[in-house]
Amino acid sequence: xxxxxxxxxxxxxxxxxxxxxxxxxxxxxxxxxxxxxxxxxxxxxxxxxxxxxxxxxxxxxxxxxxxxxxxxxxxxxxxxxxxxxxxxxxxxxxxxxxxxxxxxxxxxxxxxxxxxxxxxxxxxxxxxxxxxxxxxxxxxxxxxxxxxxxxxxxxxxxxxxxxxxxxxxxxxxxxxxxxxxxxxxxxxxxxxxxxxxxxxxxxxxxxxxxxxxxxxxxxxxxxxxxxxxxxxxxxxxxxxxxxxxxxxxxxxxxxxxxxxxxxxxxxxxxxxxxxxxxxxxxxxxxxxxxxxxxxxxxxxxxxxxxxxxxxxxxxxxxxxxxxxxxxxxxxxxxxxxxxxxxxxxxxxxxxxxxxxxxxxxxxxxxxxxxxxxxxxxxxxxxxxxxxxxxxxxxxxxxxxxxxxxxxxxxxxxxxxxxxxxxxxxxxxxxxxxxxxxxxxxxxxxxxxxxxxxxxxxxxxxxxxxxxxxxxxxxxxxxxxxxxxxxxxxxxxxxxxxxxxxxxxxxxxxxxxxxxxxxxxxxxxxxxxxxxxxxxxxxxxxxxxxxxxxxxxxxxxxxxxxxxxxxxxxxxxxxxxxxxxxxxxxxxxxxxxxxxxxxxxxxxxxxxxxxxxxxxxxxxxxxxxxxxxxxxxxxxxxxxxxxxxxxxxxxxxxxxxxxxxxxxxxxxxxxxxxxxx
Length: 676
Description:
- It is a single chain.
- By secondary structure, the protein is an alpha+beta fold.
- It has 3 domains: 2-156; 167-397, no CATH class; 427-644, no CATH class.
- Helix content is 42%, strand content 17%.
- α4 packs across α5 (94-108), α5 (94-108) runs parallel beside α8 and α15 runs parallel beside α17 (366-387).
- The longest helix has 22 residues, at 215-236.
């Protein structure tokens, strides 16, 4: 490995001067000049960051250093970067241009590994570049040969890359991020540049603001976050003592809170496992980031490359990746069994992003979409066979970032208040709602003031009403903040139109999102501001249809108050937004792979509405049971005309009318609404 690395880096150094005078490359000379220049900058950084003094420079010097590496991806530069599929295709044609744009992007994914000194990850990308350069140098490679080289790169290194990813996900020894958190002065933002991610003013200002907060505030944030995770085990009657690790996910800049959280998790007997949300071909999952990350340098660039796997995906590769995953899980099955689950600290308030679709971007064919969906399903079933979902839990909490605007500090403090509301009050009020819903056969939801929602949601029947419930009473455990009651609807008979004027889903803003539901199923939808495939990719996840996995009524009117006060509706994460009105989730139920776990509400009644006509197939036909997605869509209170429970005899009991709670015993929820 060391010999190969020395040979590869030596050759890259030689090419720095060789390419500029090499006539054999013809029209490809500018491409290879640009890419070898980038690689030389990366190798310079590889040596520089080994010296601790590098990070003791002033912030401006560190910013300048990262511009050399990330600068060409910034808006204004990206348009003429060979990492841009549109630009590359304009220079070299559709086939060759797409492959070369992918190569450029994949080589740029070397940067995190440069900072982590992960020699093998660096080496395989250097050798890939040199192989393709050699082909062009010798005979001006055609797209067919280019495809073969890149295809076998993806196939050959799948085993090593998947094994490395599993180690990152489950072994606390993979502690690159932990060492950054534990070994640095988190009140000085220099430490941010040690990650190897693009650090913007957003991350710097977040870290600087947290550095100003008193220790008791940091402690409150950390304890709420960690305690939510612990309470998830208590609420489900799961044994946390048999677990050894917890995966901590966060946005770079929040390290001071994460450091304190680690202490609380260790008191529970859990060691932190923290891994990066990587964008390389082996770890890519569309535009979704799983793991720690910064905001990124250019979201359009990430969007352009979201379907890079389409350049290679076929049956052989699907089989290969599943076999490699199976081998990796088998090797680390003990560590996987020790895993307690993820603790996610999300952010909101980032600048608006409306992606643009370009013809040059790689895109799945219909056959590939089916193969991709099949792969995701099998991969999900595979990992669930090792994790044992009935033994693990999770928690999610969210805080704003400075990009939210001038009111950042006030909104941050309001968010802390929202995340720490009195759960006993909500528990009592939500029990009142559930008592009425337990009597109902269905729920009618109708919008107003331009919201065209008109839906009937069918509910399950109770065999023992004295001991069973149709809705779960959600207080501040896994899903922070407090504020919802939710169920898995009966699909047959659930139908109508779901319409939302504006909603953010996975970072994309949807205007006039409209979904038609028949027997609990939607086969796609429409929106007025995004490309046609935005619903298919980001809500349907390439499925031909999806069932409604969840119907819920959000009760956190305090969060709604704050959202109106600071005009945050377009910024709130779904975690908070789902608590500010009724919401529907498409895909799996909230209980996927945990249908046999007993969930008991605070009043002692067991939640029984945990499955539907798809998840019930999990034993006989598991490949048909789950969709491996769960996308929430919330209707805000102001767009609600009525939500009413329809009882067996036809009697209708109003729960909300004109955006206000009207069921006796729930009126207290209107206080924040009346303050608006």
